[in-house]
Amino acid sequence: MAQDAAGTAGARVSPQVDSLIRAAQAGDQDAFEQLVRTYDQSVLRLAVNLLRSPEDARDVYQEAFLRVYRNLHAFRFDCSFHTWLYRVVTNICLDQLRKRKVRKEESPTIETREGPVDRMDTFQEEAAHADPERSLWNRQLKQRIETALEDLTPRERMVFELRHYQGLRLRNIGEMLGTTEEAAKNCLFRATRKMRAELGDFT
Amino acid sequence: MNCDSILKLLPLYYYGELTPDEEERVEEHAHGCPVCTRELAQQRALAAALDRRKLVAAPTLLEDCRSDLMAAIQGGAPRLARTVKGPWRLFLDAMAASLSGMSSGMSSGAPASGITRLRQPIGALALIAIGFFAARLIHTGPPSGTGALPGSVTAPTDEVYSTVRSVQPDNSGGVAISLDETRRKVVTGSMNDGNIQRLLLAAAHEDNPAVRVESVDLLRSQSGSTEVRDALLNVLSQDTNSGVRLKALEGLKPLAGDSEVRKTLRRVLLADDNVAVRMLVIDLLVAHRDDNMVGMMQGLVQQENNNSVRLKLEKALRDINASPGRF
Question: Which residues in chain B have Cβ-Cβ distances shorter than 8 Å to A123?
Answer without folding.
Answer: 55-58
